[in-house]
Amino acid sequence: MNAVAPTTDHLFLGLKLFEWLTLLGVFAGPMFAIFITRWLEEKRRTHDSRLQILRAVMTTRRLGGDGTYNAAVNLIEIEFNDCPAVMTAREAYLKMVFQKPTPETEADHLQRTAVKQAELIHEMMKAVGLKTKIGSIMTDAYVSEGFINRDNLYLGSLQAMMDIAAALKESNRMIAGQVEEPKP
Length: 184
Known about the structure:
Elements: E1 10-12, E2 15-16, H1 17-60, H2 67-79, H3 84-97, H4 106-127, H5 134-139, H6 145-178
Helix pairs in contact: 1-2, 1-4, 3-4
């Protein structure tokens, strides 16, 4: 008669090791897939947000007074907060921008500001996985002459409105001085 040898394949509650691994896979597999999907989605969202800010800075980098440029520079602090190189470059750029040069040092200040801006853009590009050289950032920006003319015309019209307002104020003051109130 054949004797049946007792098996030691049972691990726990009468289930064998491969059965436990199958059960673990059935439950852990979907949870792991959800975790990986969410992690990848967060990485994509972060990359897209950073790329959007970089695009805004790149397209308006020669137009410091542009609202889009100002908003993008301010958003760097939020979108690149975990990138020390970008944050350091932003701090150096803002420090340079906030300096008030004398008329004698204005040209040098503008050049140093352009270098700090290029360094900031370069660090942002590295953070999103793009490659470029600082020199090309400084020299490759395009702004059409027509756009510059239109912008200067707009700025001139704003100045003219201020001059008109001042002239009207002075005119009103002069008229008020000429009109005497009747005496009772």
